[in-house]
Amino acid sequence: MDLAEADPKGLVRESYRIDGITAGECRSIFMDWALSVPVGRSVPDAVRVLVAEYGLAAPDHPMSAVLAEALSAPVNPVRRGGRAGRQGLAR
Description:
Layout: H1 3-6, H2 11-17, H3 23-35, H4 43-55, H5 62-71, H6 82-87
């Protein structure tokens, strides 16, 4: 996958150009980017391309942290059902 396929709208590219962008703004941009990835494309592969292009050049940028989070293994959520789930009771 090349950069044009990984970031067709240039959302991630532009996030790196915004001075003073916050981590929250980067997460919002990332969500917009992720929703625009065409069906059938591998999101992790696209993120790896973005990290190689932008993240390595600016490792302290908030978007670099967001991209790194996207590649980390997801935490397995604990499903809380029934009364305990509605009441927020601990197990």
